[in-house]
Write a structure and sequence with these properties.
By secondary structure, this protein is of the alpha+beta class. The protein is built from 7 helices and 5 strands; from the N terminus they run H-E-H-E-E-E-E-H-H-H-H-H. It starts with 16 loop residues before the first helix and ends with a helix. GO terms for molecular function: structural constituent of ribosome.
Length: 243
């Protein structure tokens, strides 16, 4: 009597449902791992092929500046959402003025709402009636992180994830001729979604053919960014008459 084989895998066995279920489970896991790896590669896009221990990595967990703010006694309500957004803008201004933080690299890392007992107070109603009104007053703890330059370079230049206001301001400056026409070459990786797509396709080809040095270009890009930032601060000081 010839041996029986599993019809799906071709393996020797009884051909029961257990082999089919085990095979489908492994195939499902392979597909899941493939999708996760593909999403991870898309998020990274381009990373250094050979890691240099003397250079900073793509991400830095412990080398960033983090400021924590705590506010107590905040009334929670939909009508006061604008007050909460003002908290973030005030914190950004405080970090910029007191701690010399870069506004372009600041973002809200996390926010925690600590619920507390309500505050009861007497309120005067109509027809000379009095009642007790409860107001929920909680505390909010939020952290603002300054993105390190290596992460900022990976996000802005490599991945092309720029703020929408930044691209709109660049296009408006070119349209109104506030900058020379040669600036288009320098701003090409950031102008529109069309230019960002074709630039990153060319960048991917240069990286695959060994024409793109990640660490060298990152050092030059960071140096150029810092020089532009210092020039912008100096121009603002000159306009205000500050030394």
């Amino acid at each position: 009597m010839p041996e029986s084989r599993t019809p799906t895998t071709g393996r020797r066995g009884s051909g029961s449902w257990w082999h089919l279920r085990f095979h489908n489970t492994r195939r499902w896991r392979r597909k899941l791992i493939f999708r996760l790896n593909r999403a991870r590669y898309r998020r990274q896009f381009i990373v250094p092929k050979v890691k240099d221990p003397e250079e900073a990595g793509v991400k830095s967990k412990d080398s960033a500046n983090v400021w924590e703010f705590t506010i107590d006694g905040l009334p929670i309500g939909l009508k006061r959402l604008k007050l909460y957004t003002k908290l973030f803008s005030d914190a950004q201004k405080k970090i910029y003025e007191q701690y010399n933080g870069d506004p372009s690299r600041l973002y809200v890392q996390n926010m925690i709402i600590n619920y507390k007992p309500p505050m009861k107070q007497i309120k005067y109603h109509a027809l000379r009636n009095f009642g007790i009104m409860s107001t929920w007053r909680n505390s909010i703890v939020y952290r603002i992180r300054e993105m390190p330059m290596n992460e900022f370079y990976q996000k802005i230049f490599i991945l092309g994830r720029i703020p929408k206001s930044m691209g709109a301001e660049m296009r408006a400056a070119l349209y109104e001729k506030r900058v020379p026409a040669q600036t288009v070459t320098e701003w090409y990786p950031y102008l529109t979604a069309h230019t960002r797509f074709f630039f990153r396709r060319q960048l991917k080809w240069m990286n695959d053919t060994g024409q793109f040095n990640y660490y060298k270009h990152r050092r030059d890009w960071i140096e150029q960014y810092n020089s532009n930032l210092r020039r912008k601060i100096q121009e603002a000081r000159d306009e205000r008459g500050m030394v």
